[in-house]
Design a protein that fits this description.
Layout lengths: L1 E5 L6 H14 L3 E4 L10 H15 L2 E2 L3 H7 L10 H6 L1 H10 L3 H5 L4 E5 L5 E5 L16 H8 L6 E4 L6 E5 L2 E5 L13 E8 L3 E8 L3 H10 L2 H4 L4 H10 L4 H13 L5 H10 L2
Length: 277
């Protein structure tokens, strides 16, 4: 049995297209898309439609990610349309506007998917961990924390995304894998990343890295208007793509509190962040 898991596409269409071509050639028995299909990138509607085509034609399964939650928050009655909170999540509002009627798809996404192995055991797939869509599994996550993230009942295979940093490790008889990110890796390797899992009297895992046309994705930031109208933080998202490193997290740790308190404008905070790099 062969299982493919991809995550964290982040509206990067060229990266998704390269990954789909590779998965098609591998011909897995099941495919799970483990969240963050949209947001933080320039082609959300196109990426979501591609994934939905595979869901309808080949039975691909989808999982909710925290970025789907961010976009869904934009249709709540109390969603801000100005002020610091809106400035911070303006890219999510931009994504919401691009998706239109496709927002209904996000509302129906499940938190978890399970895939049955040939021996009847379950492989568990969530976005970040069983504790939530933002509770990430990292290479240095302590064993005692990882046990809680895997959850119960015991499963031979536990697969996540979210951190954009791939890993494979074992704990208590469970093979744990973070498949990294299709659209925006943070481990210094700009190639798209996804996971291949093969059952041979037990699960084996391989993280696959794929080159794609990143220059086309960078141009999409401009051509779609995402860079110009997706908010000041879109500049940091582009930098993340270019460098395969996280920047939003570090910006938030240094500047978010001041922006929320009205002590600093978001444009100025981004300028300061970039100047200090």
């Amino acid at each position: 049995m062969k299982l493919a898991v991809l995550a964290d596409i982040h509206a990067n269409l060229p990266a998704l297209q390269a990954t789909l071509a590779h998965i098609d050639a591998w011909q897995p028995d099941a495919v799970v898309v483990a969240g963050d299909i949209v947001n933080r990138g320039p082609r959300p509607a196109e990426c979501l439609r591609l994934v939905l085509e595979r869901q309808h034609a080949a039975g691909w399964r989808l999982v909710l990610g925290n970025h789907e939650e961010y976009v869904l928050s934009q249709v709540q009655p109390d969603a801000a349309r100005s002020g610091p909170h809106f400035d911070i999540f303006q890219s999510s509002y931009w994504t919401c506007q691009q998706l239109g009627s496709l927002m209904e798809v996000l509302e129906a996404l499940p938190f978890q998917q399970t895939v049955l192995a040939p021996d009847g055991s379950e492989a568990r797939i969530v976005h970040a961990s069983t504790r939530g869509t933002r509770d990430g599994v990292f290479p240095d996550t302590p064993d005692q924390v990882l046990r809680l993230q895997v959850g119960r009942p015991h499963t031979p295979l536990f697969v996540v995304g979210h951190t954009h940093v791939p890993l494979v490790r074992r704990i208590d008889g469970t093979l744990v894998a973070n498949v990294g990110a299709v659209g925006m890796p943070f481990d210094g390797d700009p190639r798209a990343s996804y996971g291949q899992f093969t059952w041979r009297n037990g699960w084996q895992a391989e993280i696959v890295r794929l080159a794609y046309d990143r220059r086309r994705t960078e141009q999409d930031y401009v051509d779609t208007g995402f860079l110009a109208t997706g908010g000041a933080l879109a500049r940091l998202m582009l930098r993340e793509l270019q460098e395969a490193r996280s920047h939003l997290f570090h910006w938030a740790r240094t500047y978010e509190a001041a922006v929320r308190a009205g002590e600093l404008g978001i444009e100025e905070s981004v300028e300061r962040y970039l100047a200090g790099m």
